[in-house]
Amino acid sequence: MNIKHSTNHNSPRLHYLDAVRAFALLLGIVFHASLSFMPIFIGWAVMDISTSDFVTYFIHLSHSFRMPLFFMLAGFFSHMAINKTTLQHFVHSRLIRLVMPFVIGWFLLRPLLVAGWVLGADSMKGDVDYLNALNQAFNTFYELPSNLLIGTHLWFLYYLILLSACLTIGIVLFNKMPIVAKSLTQRCNRLLSTVEHNPWILSLLLFPTATVLWLMNAWGLDTPDKSLMPNWPVFGLYALFFGFGIMLHNKPILLEKIVNVGKAKLCFMLVTPLLSLWLASFEANPIFGNYSLTKLVFSFGYALMMWSLIILSLNLGKAIFTKPNKVVRYFADASFWLYFIHLPIVIFLQVAFAELEIYWLLKLLFISLLTVAISLVLYELIIKTTWVKRIFIPIKKNI
């Protein structure tokens, strides 16, 4: 395995991976839109008057795999970008595509999000004050750099920046130490050969995934939005998926094995969410009275569900989106912007819908579709027509 020059340098673009990446980001919009419909208050901006237990199950399932899937594909496309251009170009593109949105997002989105949270709290008290919300929002600028990530979803950019930096440093060191590089390459190739010929690739991935999940604070996947200091179990998990994405691009045969899973294994994977949901019920009542052991068992079940849903997503994407499609390409190009801008829109709409006597599922559909529609209008009017498109729209010839 060569971390910089893979064997599939001139391989055709896999259009279904663009579709799956867009799906992961769009699912994030629905995920955040659903949080106000939880049957118990979870500390979200607002709690709707119409709730459902089904939302709890949806959140458990969708939260388990959407960002790991996204980070895996980020690793895949990062390795593709490095192989198609140069390391210097990759670093420059990450500065534009990751660092700039992170900085812009804090100044643009942070006050809007804080205002949304203040309005949500006010609405649950029956007294909404827009001026007070905006005033509190803009006062957060004086808090720099404390609480930089709290209340935002920009942590995903921060962790992508960290992983891209690690990848860059790794390549530089790899190229400067040829003897060590040769030894590591031989070992990696032996490992990959073992993985390629293992009929149950999933089983090899469960142990490291379950281990980092067990080390997290919550039962499931922690959201690292509290500090610039990396949450190491979370960083380890996303590094695992990012690295696996690099491996998939470096070894196309491994990707082919994953997206051509037999029907029996697919059926088994469809059942794994039920196992995870059942194990989650023991959080308040540990098996055998041992909390750590119960959490460990749950972590394996959660890891199994996580990888199963990722592999199912890839197989479904391969089955439906193998050929180029203009609509899919449009949403794939727009998906980064949609996810970047969606959260303040979602929260404001949740506050607006919270007290309306409408069934929760209809509200969820309205909020999700309106968020995408508003974001696409902004995409057409601002992003595609100005220099900002360099930040939010991928350059097709490179990545």
TrEMBL record:
The Acyltransferase domain extends over: 15-379
Report what the protein is called: Acyltransferase 3 domain-containing protein
GO MF, one term, reads: acyltransferase activity, transferring groups other than amino-acyl groups
Coiled-coil ranges (or none): none
Q: Which InterPro entries match?
A: Acyl_transf_3_dom, Glucan_succinyl_AcylTrfase
Q: Where are the transmembrane segments?
A: 20-45, 65-83, 95-119, 155-174, 200-220, 232-254, 266-284, 296-316, 336-354, 360-382
Answer whether the UniProt record assigns the keyword Transmembrane helix to this protein.
Answer: yes
Upper classification of the source organism reads: Bacteria, Pseudomonadati, Pseudomonadota, Gammaproteobacteria, Alteromonadales
Q: Which UniProt keywords apply?
A: Membrane, Transmembrane, Transmembrane helix
Species name: Thalassotalea marina
